[in-house]
């Protein structure tokens, strides 16, 4: 039985009158990589914002190490966030800063370490992601894949317990994306951290996933192992994995039958 690191219970979210997430419930195992999967507009990024405390749900609970972050005050929530590292979809590097300063930013913000120690930590993090020697480069001088690696280095700056990745392979060529997937595997294996990756990229899914949660129209339609996902006969899952357009992947009768749980 795997230990649970994060538990999501009956999460509901609205943007105005529109329901984005509907009764979302699942657990994220500790020390594994959980991939949150689904097509564009299914609610993946909204769910990620909930997990890192950037967005509060309409109702429901998110328990991280047993503590419900949806009811925390901002100061308490900031304490939880210090145990999180986040790679945003566009890497979100500050263009006016060098890579070294980007990675050093959270260390300077949240610790009182000597500058010499901070510089050592920065070099270690950049070396970890394969960017040793690029300390004085600016984001504008980097390729897309290098920016993602730099974003991961910054996310790892405070040695987080949880690493959240929003579409890590988006916009990258296949070879660069494969290299990033290998880096994610390395981080999981070396640091034994809990990683949550939001993606719609099947190649990344097959490489990095230990556990899978799939969303469709704001609902969880699968949670379990990669093998279980591949074996599913849900037409929505089959259509996604086989890259078939929705209209061809299942009939209206099939869709409503699976929504009803028949």
Give an account of the 3D structure.
Helix content is 40%, strand content 24%. With 262 residues, it is of the alpha/beta class. The model is unreliable at 257-262 (pLDDT under 50).
Give a summary of the structure in a few sentences:
The chain is α/β, with parallel strands linked by helices and 262 residues long. 40% of the residues lie in helices and 24% in strands.
Could you outline the blueprint of secondary structure elements for this entry?
Blueprint: E1 4-15, E2 18-29, E3 33-37, H1 44-51, E4 59-64, E5 67-68, H2 74-81, E6 84-87, H3 99-110, H4 115-128, H5 144-155, E7 162-166, H6 174-191, E8 194-199, H7 202-208, E9 211-216, E10 219-224, H8 226-231, H9 235-241, H10 246-249, H11 252-259
Parallel strand pairs: 3-8, 3-9, 6-7, 7-8
Antiparallel strand pairs: 1-2, 1-4, 4-5, 9-10
Helix pairs in contact: 3-4, 3-5, 4-5, 6-7
The span between the termini is 28 Å
Task: Quote the average pLDDT.
Answer: 90
**How many strands in all?**
10
Report the portion of residues in β strands.
15-25%
Structural class comes to alpha/beta
Query: Could you estimate the helical fraction of the residues in percent?
Result: 25-40%
List unreliable stretches of 5+ residues: 257-262
SSE run? EEEHEEHEHHHEHEHEEHHHH
Strand order of the largest sheet: 6-7-8-3-9-10
The total count of helices amounts to 11
How would you sum up the major sheet? Answer: 6 strands, mixed
CA radius of gyration: 19 Å
Q: What characteristic shape results from the CA principal axes?
A: globular
């Amino acid at each position: 039985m795997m230990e649970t690191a994060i538990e999501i219970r009956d999460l509901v979210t609205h943007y105005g009158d529109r329901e984005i997430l509907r009764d979302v419930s699942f657990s994220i195992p500790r020390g594994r990589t959980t991939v949150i999967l689904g097509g564009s507009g299914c609610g993946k990024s909204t769910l990620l914002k909930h997990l890192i405390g950037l967005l509060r749900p309409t109702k429901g609970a998110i328990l991280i190490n047993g503590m419900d972050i949806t009811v925390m005050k901002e100061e308490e929530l900031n304490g939880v966030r210090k145990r999180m590292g986040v790679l945003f979809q566009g890497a979100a590097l500050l263009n006016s800063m060098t890579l070294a300063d980007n990675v050093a930013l959270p260390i300077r913000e949240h610790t009182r370490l000597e500058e010499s120690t901070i510089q050592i930590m920065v070099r270690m993090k950049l070396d970890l992601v394969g960017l040793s020697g690029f300390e004085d480069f600016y984001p504008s001088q980097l390729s897309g894949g290098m920016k993602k690696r730099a974003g991961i280095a910054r996310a790892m700056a405070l040695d987080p317990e949880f690493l959240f990745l929003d579409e890590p392979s988006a916009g990258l060529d296949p070879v660069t994306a494969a290299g990033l997937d290998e880096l994610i595997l390395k981080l999981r294996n070396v640091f034994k951290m809990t990683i949550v990756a939001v993606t719609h990229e099947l190649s990344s899914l097959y490489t990095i996933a230990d556990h899978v949660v799939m969303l469709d129209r704001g609902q969880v339609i699968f949670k379990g192992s990669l093998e279980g996902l591949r074996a599913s006969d849900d037409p929505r899952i089959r259509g996604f994995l086989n890259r078939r357009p929705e209209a061809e992947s299942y009939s209206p009768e099939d869709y409503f039958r699976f929504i009803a749980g028949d």
